[in-house]
Amino acid sequence: MPGFTYEQSMLTCDGVPLATLAEAVGTPCYVYSGATIRSRVADLAAAFAPVPHQLHYALKANSTLAIVRLLRSLGCEADANSGGEIEVALRAGFIPDQIVFTGVGKSRDELERAVTLGLKAINAESAGELERIAAIAEAQSTRARVALRVNPDIDARSHPHISTGLKRNKFGVALETAVPLLTAMAERPGLEIVGIHAHIGSQITTIEPLARAARALAEIARALVGAGLPLQHIDVGGGVGIDYEGTGAVVDVAEYARAVIEATRPLGLSLILEPGRSLVGPAGVLVATVVDVKEHPGGRRFVVLDAGMTELLRPALYGAYHRIVPLAAGGRPPVLCDVVGPVCESSDTFGVDRELPDPRVGDRVAVLDTGAYGAVMASTYNRRPIPPEVLVDEGAWRVVRRRMSVDDMLMAEA
Ligand code: LLP
After folding, report:
1. pLDDT in tens, 337-388
2. Distance 357 CA to ligand 1 centre (A)
3. Given CA atoms 204, 209, 212, 213 in this order, what sign does their dihedral have?
4. Could you identify the atom of ligand 1 that is nearest to the CA of residue 241?
5. Which residue's CA is the closest to the ligand 1 atom numbered 9?
6. Using one digit for the tens of pLDDT, what is the confidence trace for 189-231?
7. Residue 158 — pLDDT band, cuts 50, 70, 90?
């Protein structure tokens, strides 16, 4: 069975019991389902098949090399958000022509590297950045391919920390400035204007804002083409949300694709998509062991895990909801508890008033839908080692990142 399912009361990943993996590598650990990633990519690609398009996997969601390589083998190209992600993309086997470079604050070094490599597109965030890219390219007697990121002032209706498409957010240039800016910049010998880009936020659970953003992009693209600028693509960013609550799909990708295609098809430009979470989020779990159970008199019952905000920051940072389930189902009666981590912060809480089968020390649980923005956001706060990651794929499992050792942790220190 692909994905995470119970078989004979044991939670499995693509058929492999998670308890076996936890025994082998220890906890906390991340486990990924290759089959889930494969099917998420196939669904999205099928939905956009009617038009020329390219999926550029947003490495920021999960940039573990084996995961990036798997996405590359499935036909994805790359969206890198920093110099570091560009290097990871190259090491995963992407050529520069398959990498788009996004990000609101690109340093001089990052821009120089991007121009020298000749990336598929640098998604410029401001007039100043276009200017800097032009100057770097002209000094190298080359032309950099750029797309302009616009801020369409659309409310993605996601968590405010991950909404990026409103005027009050720091991202992109105001819609109305895009055409004059690009027509002026097209004169620069160092720039080849190849596209127009927007990304209005992440974990977007309704199609309407995504469709509106696509329509806004199409309108600008039309104006630019009309002004004599031969664009090559429209980059609609990422942002499709996933079903953290487990109540049923939140965004139907076929419906999403239809809306984007309808808005952009008349222009005949190819589409770039930058999906992250929707491809890898449901494909990962964080496995942890209960290290303590305690109850304040007349108060709350705490289940303390060996994983916390250092392994999975989303609950502490956004109050994000993740389902928490036992590796072994059935047996004991369910009780209500607060599931917390071991870090010395009260925000280090994975879930309040959760039902788990009367937890005991040594029990194991899985925190679901942590394949995106899980391992990548891990830290060594409290000098906790970055956890190992296991990929189950095509009938076998392997450790794709081993647990950080104390020596690894201190490697860069004098
Ligand atoms: N493109 C750009 C320019 C982005 O900034 C992002 C995400 C993506 C694509 C991918 O978006 P996705 O398809 O994954 O929604 N740490 C937060 C999410 C931050 C997303 C940042 N940008 C979280 O844990 O929810």
Report:
1. 999 999 999 999 999 999 999 999 999 999 999 999 999 999 999 999 999 9
2. 34
3. negative
4. 15
5. 238
6. 999 999 999 999 999 999 999 999 999 999 999 999 999 999 9
7. confident
* The pair of three-digit structure tokens given for residue 27, joined into one six-digit string: 């906890």
Is 344 catalytic? The answer is yes
**Ligand 1 pocket: which of 157, 277, 322, 367 to mutate (most atoms within 8 A of CB):** 277
Total residue length of the chain? 414
* Chain-centre distance for alpha carbon 276: 3
Domains of the chain: 4-32+281-410 (2.40.37.10), 34-279 (3.20.20.10)
